[in-house]
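Summary for the steering committee. The consortium agreed at its last meeting that each partner would contribute one worked example illustrating the joint modelling workflow. Our contribution is presented below. We chose a case with several input lines so that the handling of multiple components could be demonstrated. No manual editing was applied between input and output; the record is shown as generated.
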Amino acid sequence: QLQLQESGPRLLKPSETLSLNCTVSGASISGINYYWDWIRQPPGKALEWIGGNRYAGSSYNNPSLKSRVSISLDTYKNQFYLKMNSVTAADTAMYYCVRGVGGFDSHFDYWGQGTLVTVSS
Amino acid sequence: DIQMTQSPSTLSASVGDRVTITCRAGQTISSWLAWYQQKPGKAPKLLIYQASSLGGGVPSRFSGSGSGTEFTLTISSLQPDDFATYYCQHYHSFPVTFGGGTKVEIK
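What follows is the complete predicted structure of the assembly.
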């Protein structure tokens, strides 16, 4: 059974860099049929796709986040990562790592449990 | 970006009711639509993809329909486990976007 688990610092100050890891078990992230994505959800609000990457493919980020986001894969560790720089209070949210089916325009069939990241001075 | 609009935002229903949630896309998305169920404190769970295909392990009381710009999620007989928030998501083009959610409450 495929499982995803987020980890990383949960409290950041404004202007710092958010760094999250997602450990995948039960399947290899080296497959070309899937993207490995991040989605976030501010408290009480709807879901927002952040971006994704694929083995031997390209990464795609939501243009709304401009160039603040970087998503990378480590196939040896079977992990993927999210880095978001210059965070503000607006980046406070539950962050989910997910598997995207198909291309960069995917639906998402497996989700991590999520990790709440709070940005506060 | 394609805007996804769900209605209603909140729905009160009783166990055994037939429930329908609507999702409208700001432009045609063919059948590239998914539905998710989210319970408080939990990650969303995929229910429906490609507008009408049931996700793995999803009970048959859930069904999806529609194409183009208008879609519906139907629960044929609401069960206690179904009280949750439901989101639609298009994946027709980059970037994918989600609807604002529909909360199904106990009447």
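The longest strand of chain A covers residues 93-101. Chain A touches chain B at residues 46-49, 60, 62-64, 96, 101-102, 104-109, 111-114 (CB under 8 Å).
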